[in-house]
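Hey, can you fold this one?
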Amino acid sequence: MRIAFFGSSLVSAYWNGAATYYRGVIRALHARGFDVTFYEPDAYERQQHRDIADPDWARVVVYDNHPDAMYRAVAEARGSDVVVKASGVGVFDRELEEAVLDRAAHTMAVFWDVDAPATLDRLAADPADPFHALVPRYDVVLTYGGGEPVRRAYRAAGARECIPIYNALDTATHFPVAADPRFTADLSFLGNRLPDREARVDEFFFAAAAALPRKRLLLGGSGWHDKPTPANVHYVGHVYTADHNAFNCTPSAVLNISRESMARYGFSPATRVFEAAGAGACLVTDAWEGIEQFLEPDREVLVAADAAGVAAHVNALTAGAARRIGAAARARVLASHTYAHRAAQVSALLQGRTVPA
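Sure. Predicted structure:
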């Protein structure tokens, strides 16, 4: 089965948090016999900050950041068995949303939403948004989070069906490695600076840092260079995916902070949750509905309702407890939450069957 996939980027995680999700899903689909061509625009300097070369498990087509080039790419994709339009491509998204439908005759059209809360908020804010009329024309909407609340919202928006394909562990890229002195810390956080995230980073990371003046905290991700930070926060800038394992394995604990909209909907574990768990890291996460579906609180993950909770976990954590929590989390995701599990779900769906999430 041939899949044409329009997304932000497969080869670069620069300002593109969905990259590891795309890689995990598509690599696992390739292992099941799918032939995937990934179409991505040359935008946001992603091609200048590649994490990987073109893989052997997908064909990558980079098109110019121009509408004519985008339409040519859509025309080339015509005739594929499945055409996927992912949310958040970054350029010409609204044109693509319609183009893949108008030019995808005799194919299955999928809208794959990697930020469903933002898309649903966009629809709620603008009754005249053209996407209202397009949602029912897609054969299915897939999301990488949101659970039943997002599924109900998409069905109410006219989707024929909405199925979550959650983030997971890519066992080929995320695993335990030796500690790296560059990433030594009591607590680390990795995430790009985004409007929907910054206030929660202030609340859960920077406020926790202020409450932990004798602890070393590490911040990675793009866009934080001009952010005033407590003296015990050390900023390392963009962390390439090749360094993610060391970034997760070296600190005593790793912090996950959900974006505001994802925390509001719940059931939206970030890619970082599975990357850290797969590396055997001791994970501390902000509280959100549905965490128990993925990791067991206190045994496989530490959950904090606020900065005080984060600080309390860091102060109480021993090396032995961190190792036990990290090992339990890794065992859980290997057993239930790898991209091989997700690809089995997608494969069944595309062949007209369903399997449990």
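The two ends are 22 Å apart (CA to CA). Let me know if you want another pass with a different chain boundary.
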